[in-house]
Design goal:
Glutaredoxin; alpha/beta; 7 strands; 206 residues; RdCVF; Thioredoxin_domain; NXNL1 protein; Thioredoxin-like_fold; 2 domains; globular
Length: 206
Amino acid sequence: MAALFTGKILMANRERDEVETERELGRALENKVLLLYFGSGQCPRCRQFSPLLKDFFVRLTDEFYVERASQLVLVYVSRDETQQQQSAFLRTMPRRWLAVPFGDAFKRELELRFGVSEVPAVVVLKPNGEVIAGNAVEEIRRLGPACFRNWQEAAELVDRNFLLAEDFDDWTSRSITDPIRRLKYKLDKKTEAKNEERREEGEEAS
């Protein structure tokens, strides 16, 4: 996948860090399903879809919902009219998103390569760059996070059981509350399980 971005630069969302070296790109993109999100913070259709995509991504990668982040990476390809618009939009999106820098000619290359003429569009790619879905907007709307399993099978990903959700820690900051939030989630799940056992025991006794 990194071959698609050879010699290019990607930006880490809300960070000044650039992801451009072969090693960094390889680590960020290797063995993952890649989503290219062509959109704009000013487009009415994008404003309707972007919150769905945000929720989709968070439910697959955030420790509040999953023990281990799915092998998924998203690159935002902007059609915003100004850098300020792009930055304002990205501030409302997950920190783990990457983005093509504003004004980079590579954006047009990607649009032409994948035949993107209208936004929103989500191109889904295998790690080797082959297209799984030319535009998954409707699939994401219809199925939500469940469609990732289909993509994962199509991409023939190597399951990295030893990798935790800290996959991106070296180049994006994490909230200090994450460990507390994750612990609370686990405790809530245990409490829920105990309550369920008590209810079942009560039903059997009656």
